Amino acid sequence: MLREDAVESDEIWTKLKALVAEVLGTDEVALSRETVAADVDGWDSVTHVEILVAIEQTFGVQFRTSELAGMQNVGDLVERLERALH
Length: 86
Hints:
Elements: H1 9-24, H2 45-59, H3 65-70, H4 74-85
């Protein structure tokens, strides 16, 4: 778990890209703050749940349903991770 130490934004992005790529079964995935699931090949409703579970386990955070509903893109997700980890 990474929560014990403050995690910098670059570290979050690096780990997030690696997690998403792993769940999608690809070597690399391009993500930006504006990226939404529909922009990424293979990111469907099932992999969406798998990605969120992997994020919660890796970063040692737990999202409430209301938080998840408010996330519109990857940038929103990263902002919530930054707040949770600092």
